[in-house]
Amino acid sequence: MPKILIVGGGYAGFYTAWKLEKHLRRGEAEVVVVDPLPYMTYLPFLPEVASGNIEPRHAVVSLRRHLKRTRVINARVTNIDHANKTATISPEGGEDWQYDYDQIVVTAGSVSRTFPIAGIADNAIGLKSIEEAVAARDTLVRNFERAASLPVGSELRKRLLTVIVVGGGFAGIETLGELRSAANALLGQFPDISYDETQFHLIEAMGRIMPEVSLPTSEKVLKDLAQRGAHVHLDTQVADATDGVVKTNTGEEYPSGLIIWTAGVMANPKVVNGSDLPREQRGRITTQADLRVVDAEGNLVEGAW
Ligand SMILES: Cc1cc2nc3c(=O)[nH]c(=O)nc-3n(C[C@H](O)[C@H](O)[C@H](O)COP(=O)(O)OP(=O)(O)OC[C@H]3O[C@@H](n4cnc5c(N)ncnc54)[C@H](O)[C@@H]3O)c2cc1C
User: Fold this and answer.
1) Is 10 in the pocket of ligand 1 (CB under 6 A)?
2) N or C terminus of the chain: which is more exposed, having fewer CB within 10 Å?
3) What's the topology of domain 120-261?
4) How much of the chain exceeds pLDDT 90, in percent?
5) Average pLDDT of the chain?
6) 107 CB under 6 A from ligand 1?
């Protein structure tokens, strides 16, 4: 029986396995999904999870519950030797082993792209996993609790009530809007905290937000956010975030109790670099429109998707 290996059970990997289950006759192929997580995460819901509008368990899909005829392996793929059609499977705490395949589908997604900015790795939360979204919400609620018992105007109280989002793409803007709404709802439970004390800032390096939509639409969003008390700083970059104090290249300084980093993603470097599949300058595996892998000259790489 031919073997189909799917690397990553996220959005693309889960759907590939699910559709293959529908199309393949019994015994036609063995389908294997390898992922260190036992669930697919529906990333578009993460901003709503961060604000508490959606429960975390409603934004994830159990692989084993939904993939009845697929073999699910809870591990990482750490090497792909496509020349010999074999992949290295690394289970947590166990020995690596090899899986020989006929077809490979590489859907290991992307990771947060961080720049070498001091303090970001230590103090900012990304928004690529359910755990990060839950951590953002927990931090917001905890900061309100702590701030409420501190004197009005104190430095720590101001810091705890200041939220910074870095990156004005869809993820950042949605997260800013959702957290602003969550804070408004929390204010109802914290009569000691006033609306004016809660500060929300989004920092974006470009001169506009959400490049995927038209300029008039993005300007409408900016206006709406301003009315809701969320400040967007365009043409501004984070220069430093040491000890949670966000300093910008325009000279502003914001001590913050919650920093969210949504300033872009890059192809999963561990999976891509650990493979012999062709990739372009930005580290993405090269494919043609039907998602079959091709080399730089456009020649098909057989058995790779
Ligand atoms: C906050 C946010 C909001 C978004 N909103 C939208 C939206 O509204 N509309 C839209 O179209 N898109 C949206 N997106 C983008 C969309 O979610 C992604 O394009 C989509 O999830 C990509 O699917 P994927 O399968 O490539 O990667 P993912 O869904 O990220 O899946 C990758 C999988 O690979 C696994 N993996 C990682 N390393 C390994 C390894 N070594 N071995 C095996 N498995 C591994 C991971 O655990 C994960 O399960 C949003 C993204 C974010 C972050």
Assistant:
1) yes
2) N
3) FAD/NAD(P)-binding domain (3.50.50)
4) 94
5) 96
6) yes
* CA 73 to chain CA centroid, nearest Å: 22
For residue 58, pLDDT over 90 is answered with yes
Is the Cβ atom of 76 under 6 angstroms away from ligand 1?
A: yes
Domain 3-108 bears CATH identifier 3.30.160.270: no
Res. 114: pLDDT tops 80? no
63/170 Cα distance (integer angstroms): 27
Atom 7 of ligand 1, residue of closest alpha carbon: 44
CB 179 within 8 A of CB 51: yes
CB of 44 within 6 A of ligand 1: the answer is yes
Ligand 1 atom closest to residue 7's alpha carbon, by position in its atom list: 43
Whether pLDDT at 116 is above 90: no
**pLDDT mean over 266-291:** 93
Domain with CATH 3.50.50.60 in the chain: 3-108, 120-261
The string of pLDDT tens digits covering residues 145-169 is 999 999 999 999 999 999 999 999 9
Q: One-letter amino acid identity for 168? A: G
Distance CA 304, CA 207 (A): 39
Strands 97-100 and 39-41 come out as unpaired
Yes or no: say if 276 and 82 are a contact pair by the CB < 8 Å rule. Answer: yes
Instruction: Measure the CA–CA gap between 90 and 74, rounded to whole angstroms.
Output: 9
Nearest atom in ligand 1 to the alpha carbon of residue 175 is: 1
Report the pLDDT value the prediction gives residue 207, as an integer from 0 to 100.
96
